[in-house]
Design a protein that fits this description.
- The chain has helices spanning 2-14, 41-47, 107-120, 162-176, 202-222, 267-287, 293-297, 344-361, 378-384, 393-401, 404-410, 412-430, 435-441; strands at residues 19-25, 31-36, 49-52, 66-71, 77-78, 88-96, 124-136, 181-186, 192-197, 200-201, 226-228, 242-250, 253-254, 306-307, 309-311, 318-320, 333-335, 387-388.
- With 445 residues, it is α+β, with helices and mostly antiparallel strands.
- The chain has 2 domains: 1-101, Glutamine synthetase, N-terminal domain (Ubiquitin-like (UB roll), Roll), CATH 3.10.20.70; 112-146 and 229-440, Creatine Kinase, Chain A, domain 2 (2-Layer Sandwich).
- The strands form 3 sheets. Strands 7, 8, 9, 10, 11, 12, 13, 15, 16 and 17 form a 10-stranded mixed beta sheet that branches. Strands 1, 2, 3, 4, 5 and 6 form a 6-stranded mixed beta sheet that branches.
- It comes from Cryobacterium serini.
Length: 445
Amino acid sequence: MDKQRDFVLRTIEERGIKFVRLWFTDVVGTLKSVAIAPAEVEGAFNEGLGFDGSAIEGLTRSFEADVLAHPDPTTFQILPWRGEVDPTARMFCDITTPDGQPAVADPRNVLKRTLAKAAERGFTFYTHPEVEFYLLKSSKYGKNGPIPVDSAGYFDNVPGGTAHDFRRRSVRMLEDLGISVEFSHHEAGPGQNEIDLRYADALTTADNIMTFRTVVKEVAIEQGVYATFMPKPMSEHPGSGMHTHMSLFEGDANAFYEAGAKYQLSKIGRQFIAGLLKHAPEITAVTNQFVNSYKRLWGGDEAPSFVCWGHNNRSALVRVPLYKPNKGQSARVEYRAIDSAANPYLAYSLMLAAGLKGIDEGYELPPEAEDNVWSLSDTERRALGYTQLPASLDHAIQFMEESELVAETLGEQVFNYVLLNKRQEWRDYRSQVTPFELQKNLEML
């Protein structure tokens, strides 16, 4: 770590860095930033940077407000969108109390705790997210809703299109930040795009997602358009998910891989999926944390609504992708409910905790879904044992508040704050009179 600190301090001097932004997130997953002068960085490494944590959503209670931000030198990167005018760098921070204890409500620490539990069992947790978002002409919207930048569809090539330049610029910027991109393409909705980040350990991935959102927003501003990670910005078009591929490694060996097993999926892999399925309703208030998230989950367009798994079945909640011959290291499972607006630190903590619970308790994996689950009737789904994901944020809150797994994984303070925050959002939403109601009822009733 000392070598890494020395590298950071040397780079700041050699590159003429004028500002260093210290980044962290609140419990909702909003990126927070405080800029310090280069001369203050060494002190921040040694002692942390003090600030009032009560000003941050869910971070502390007011009577324990003082916290310290400790920059992680391994996350140092120069921000490419700032260019050569006042070069600026960033580092992610771990938040502690003044006595040096990890702040219980720091989302990054929640994930670190859960990863430590996996490490005690000999596992390293890797994730690979496919992040979808919409490019709109503006953040403003009229009677017909937001206006996308194009009318293209899935994998469309649009000569001279905004999305081409946007994706090219975004990918280059992400690579400059040390974030490897696997794919980028136009998605199914007009103005909808997807950029897939390469596999990394879950903490690095969560940091990368927070950086990714910032890069996408910055490039959009630069190009005169607006990017949104809202789960379902337009009722008539698909929502934006963040399908995440996951695997556990024991040293250099993929614990999900077993040669000769069905789908080359090991017992550990099967138990991990069983854990995800059993606990999916309880973790949905975090993987899908907004009222709007449920418009995506229940709006069709390949969003999973029912708790089941399948081999290469895109209607299932958990999918086991096609096995690549002679590539045992690529064995993985894909969780398809999580959306692009989730707090990645908390969501990945709960997805890992659910899978580990399946392994620890030896959960049995139910039979796979071979049909298109959306095309089945409710009676057929019941007969096959497919329960549904929560149908609303209110429904998800009810599952979460009864969950020992979620309370234990998040810790008391984060658990209580998430519930408090989500209950308030539901109350605010429930009190609204929507255009739908006025259109349907005002003249008729």
